[in-house]
Give the backbone structure.
Amino acid sequence: MDMDLLNDLIDEELKEANKIYPLFQTEHEAYGVMREELEEAAEEFRNIKEKILQDYWKLCRNSKYHLDNKKVTSRLLNKIEQLILDNLKELIQLGAMVKKAKMLNNVEKGVNCGE
């Protein structure tokens, strides 16, 4: 996995967020926003886990059903794939908020953090 690509996605998310929302004013505000993003990512991860460990496993246990119902399997795998993308989006947003919190830290120290 190209870490530069991931970092670019986080930077782009931060850029878009900064167009809409001002810099954090306090560490408490930064914490609140990061916690919200973390909770959203955790919820998405729980959804992935549930679909794989419960729903996909049910198909696997009954291999005849699994093999005979490719549409059901395909829909479930598509749902899992979408949940993974949703989770990645939440993690990118969390990464952007961490960088935004770092900007608050730099402002407090008198460092010009720019955009």
Remarks:
- Confidence is low (pLDDT under 50) at residues 111-115.
- The CA atoms of residues 18 and 36 lie 17 Å apart.
